[in-house]
Amino acid sequence: MKNFLNGGLITLSVAILFACGPTQATDEPDSVQYKPSVGLYDFSSRELLSKQAVDVNLRGSSNWGDAWVGVYRSPSDEFTQARLGWDNTYEKFGFKFQPSLQTASGGFWGGSLAAEYGNTFFVGAGIGRTNLRNYFNLNFDPNDAWSLSTGYRWSTQDFVTFQVVRDNRLNPDQQHVHLAYRRPFADKQRLVVDLIYKSGTSEGEYIRRRGLMLGYDWGNVGLRIAYDPRVNFSHYDMTRIILSKHY
Question: Is residue 141 assigned to a domain?
């Protein structure tokens, strides 16, 4: 990818999605659980000292899966993009399959398919494809890519996972490696840590950088803070703060 706006749909961590499950799983066929979130992004580079953006999302979960709507807005360059998406998880022959579909203003369409096998020790793989229209990719991993993952679960809320996401279409040397850990505590509190190592060509230069995401949940409220150097293999570094709440 050459900038922030490139088509893509590979999820930040296929293993994390399967391990965490939907926003709030429910057995009630007509019950929907909601998760609104607000993200504040700060881009910085040698050429541009600071550039802010905001992203607002609403995610709903029920037996039909997860659906979401969101709007990204960058006041400095007056760019706005709205998006819609859906995913669900199906179990068959000991495997978990997760298809997803997404569209956004500007003519973007994309889809992905991920599969996972195993409960305590698990392995997974995924692939995503788009029509290459501009799209603000909220997971910031390589787009139109394959992914491989493995990990270990002590419980559905306590696990560690290792994942590689690599571009296999436009920039085949761009790659992200994630090492993620999630640990629950008393009173519905949770710690989430995601270490990232990225390598590949960025603005004509081959780079190797390390990033970090730290998150903590207090019951139904969650906070994520991340530092992502050379985000989307551009010349920008990004700091992200995301606040969410379950209903």
Answer: yes
- What confidence tens digit (pLDDT) does each residue in 75-94 have? 877 889 999 999 999 999 99
pTM of the model: 0.86
DSSP reduced 3-state for 233: helix
| Residue-range definition of the domain harbouring residue 202 | 14-245
pLDDT one-digit tens code per residue, 147-196: 999 999 999 999 999 999 999 999 999 999 999 999 999 989 999 999 99
Is 6 inside any structural domain?
no
Is residue 1 domain-resident?
Answer: no
Contacts of 213 (CB under 8 A, 6+ apart): 192, 193, 194, 196, 224, 225, 226, 227, 240
Has residue 3 been placed in a domain?
no
Relative to beta strand 189-202, strand 205-218 is antiparallel
β-bridge pairing 33-44 and 237-245: antiparallel
Domain at 27, CATH number: 2.40.160.40
The rounded distance, in Å, linking the Cα atoms of 237 and 124 is 29
Residue 71 burial (C-beta neighbours within 10 Å; 0-12, 13-18, 19+): middle
Distances (CA, A) of 16 to 13, 110, 162, 181, 233: 5, 21, 10, 9, 23
Residue 48 or 90, more confident: 90
